[in-house]
Amino acid sequence: MQFIHLSDSHLGYRQYNLDERENDIYESFMECIDKIIEIKPDFVIHSGDLFESPQPSVNALRTAIEGFLKLKEKNIPIYLIHGNHDIPKSQQKGRPFGILKKIVGSSLKTFLREKSHVFKDSVFIGGIEYAPQNKIQKSHEDIQKIILDSKNYHKKILLFHQSVTPFMPQSFELQITDFPTDFNYFAGGHIHQRALKPVNDGNSVFSYAGSTEIMSVSEVSNYKKHKKGFYLGDLSRDFDINSVEKIDTECRNFLTDKKIENEKDLKELILELKSFENNLKKPILYCNVSENIFNTSLEELKSLVLYSRFNKIDEEGFESISFNENNIEEVFQEYVKQKEMPVDFVYQLYKKLLESEKECIEYTDNYFNNHYRGQ
Fold it and tell me: Annotated catalytic residue: which of 82, 85, 117, 154?
């Protein structure tokens, strides 16, 4: 019995505010769907952040529907939990998973009310929704209920969307000791880099499937080592880490380690970029440029890439940054996203600070009233 574990698709994310990058996100997701159909697993689990926003765009919703209906046509059910990006900020707003369930039907199982499902009377699948730090006690309660409900099953999977110590040493959310010891597979989301580790003396596997596309430049080095994609697990025999296989997908090329100190370096980089011309997708370039070259024309270089960001290095080694179209807003938002802070809140707070102190205070107070107080 085989299953697929994928996570953090972030459908609708517009990196650098570019249509091309939004489309890359959709294409990566659909590539995963097509590979899943080729593999023909028994079921699929998704560990949250299907969408970038709890109010997804029409294109994002359409892509999710198209992908899930393809799986339904092949009789492959999907088990899906809410990540932090899937949850509305206000309880009055509807959840996009409700729309998906109405269209996809019983092939899609979620865990908002029911904390567990059973696949063909043999595989127990528990799921805990994402919880902020102030609500983490609810996650502990859900885990205890899942443990009780799963006691009569031998094949068990637990979905979660949190950072977990010691796999994320600075996590203040969950500890690996919070998880049950008799589950086969812990299917994690929220962390965009892949991780696969044996736990419980090798009798269980702890996994972060990672994001299905590069969502931040901070993910590039890990992508070069471990790629993106999903995991394929096999429960038909004794389950251990050797029962899990990594399935890779391809992302747009990011060139992040380039340096131009002189004209020779510039010409060599231009030649390298021209080698991508047969590729339908132009690469993305992050480059350190010496001051004397920075002040010359870099237009030919820019024409060969989808997006470029240059760090100017002066003679004393100090850096300043040149943005595409001087768009500081997208740089700010990308930085906030890398730090796993609530992007919308931080960015709106930043804009309110520029407008008036009173609006800033009101905005902050309303945000914390809705998300933290009285919980």
Answer: 85
